What does this fold into?
Amino acid sequence: KPLLKGLGIVFAFSVVTKRLNLVMLGGLLQYLLGVMVIALPVLFQPELRRVLEELGKNDFFARFFAISPRENYDVVKIIAETAEEMARENKGALIILEREIPLREVAESGQLIDAEVSVVLLKQLFFKDTPLHDGAVIIRGDRITAASCILPLSTRVDLPLSYGTRHRAGVGMSEQSDAIVVIVSEERGKITVVNNGEIRECSKQGELLDYLWAEFAEKNKERITIPKDIFYRKMDS
It folds into this structure.
């Protein structure tokens, strides 16, 4: 507030000096005004970021980046099928379904990619001999946007003793975002889904698919969408 007040005062004096034809003082004030305007985005970076995130979550903009209900169902079906296959094979997985809250920083902790969601690719990413098998895969819309991502660990003391780092990471991600997290236990061959910190075990075939589809249907009613984005890219240096 003091900065904005000062900016207003400088602007007012600048107008007065221009009307009085005080060239040197007016030029100095114009220069000072320019410096203050340039400094504003830096000083108000957190506020500007919050505004941009709110715009990004606005349903009006989401309509332009939405996938169809048919495509949406195909995506959750692929995720459920992948999780069930990996559970039967006792292979671990950690899949993040990004929703309205952007996960850019989390995505950048791993390897940024842009690939169509498929059972084959998801299983390959979590295969032990591949360099990206550690960490989480992030899915936004119908695209895999990042792999091998590092997630924040939950500090909850009420989690089952059988939960290891993968489960704590999944719960932690759910606590800090609106993402839905699908976890496959390598040791137990069990599927867990976490949403808003709430943990659900999916023991029956098709249970995960039913849950995911119902969740997205409830969130979006008639127009079921997972908004797309201009996917994160690392600039070549």
